[in-house]
Amino acid sequence: MTNTAFAKGGNFTNFDLFQPQPNQDSQLLEQLGFLPGLKEILMLRQVHALEHATVWMLSDLEQARRNHTSSNVNFNDNETIGGMSTEKGFYLYGEINPLKLKRAVCLALDRLKQGEWNLAIHPRCGTNVSVAMVLTTGAILTTYFFLPRDPLGQLLSLGFATTAVSWLAPDIGMSVQKYLTTAIPFNLKIREIAKTVDSIGRPAHFVSLQWQNL
């Protein structure tokens, strides 16, 4: 399936339990703005969503280009592109055309605001990895402390537990992304896009974003 098809499909990626509102974060900041770091957290969640949507858009643009030149291409998520979000914007890594990047960011922001909220979720997000690690650790500890201590029983129990984790972790990771680590970027405005290096010297493009109250 294509990248947009993945982003739109599945019960765990549909925003069916919560309908994002354009002014929700602005109101929260107005009411609880005295809490230290709240604005940075709210902006980071929105930036994170826009980072994911931009990667989807870049993949779509590349897929469209390849399909135009070849009828036998089955191009999905562009795994050569990675990203990292900050409270001021996000870094993108990989071979990226600056003009396509600008177009992708604008498309991503518009489509998210217009209701394609599932573009905020991405299967290669580090959130999924973190969730899988936590669940795996929990399964190992549960097996060791609460299940039979004989070697065969422990081995069988651990096998069942890790199998269950591998089956559940992707969906749980998507839900964690949807409800905790991303938010629809209603408050974000694009400032500039520039080629740069990140904090450890890796070449990247940085999409600088600005918060605007609604």
- Helix amount, in percent? 40-55%
Strand/helix succession: HHHEEHHHEE
The description of the largest β-sheet is: 4 strands, antiparallel
Shape: globular
Beta-strand portion reads 5-15%
Radius of gyration: 20 Å
How many domain modules?
2
Span between N and C termini? 37 Å
Strand order of the largest sheet: 1-2-4-3
Contiguous low-pLDDT stretches (5 residues minimum) are 1-13, 70-75
Number of strands: 4
Please tally the helical runs, counting DSSP H or I stretches of 4 or more residues.
6
Which structural class fits the helix and strand makeup?
A: alpha+beta
Mean pLDDT: 86
Question: Would you mind describing this structure in some detail?
Answer:
The longest helix has 32 residues, at 38-69. The protein starts with a helix and ends with a strand. It has 214 residues and is α+β, with helices and mostly antiparallel strands. Helix content is 54%, strand content 14%. Helix 3 (38-69) crosses helix 4 and helix 5 runs antiparallel to helix 6. It has 2 domains: 3-121 and 182-211, no CATH class; 125-181, no CATH class. The protein has a 4-stranded antiparallel beta sheet with strand order 1-2-4-3, with helices on one face.
How are the SSEs ordered, and which strands pair?
Layout: H1 3-8, H2 24-32, H3 38-69, E1 82-86, E2 89-93, H4 98-113, H5 126-146, H6 151-181, E3 188-197, E4 203-211
Antiparallel strand pairs: 1-2, 2-4, 3-4
Helix pairs in contact: 3-4, 5-6
Provide a concise account of the structure shown.
The chain is α+β, with helices and mostly antiparallel strands. It has helices at 3-8, 24-32, 38-69, 98-113, 126-146, 151-181, and strands spanning 82-86, 89-93, 188-197, 203-211. It is globular and about 60 Å long.
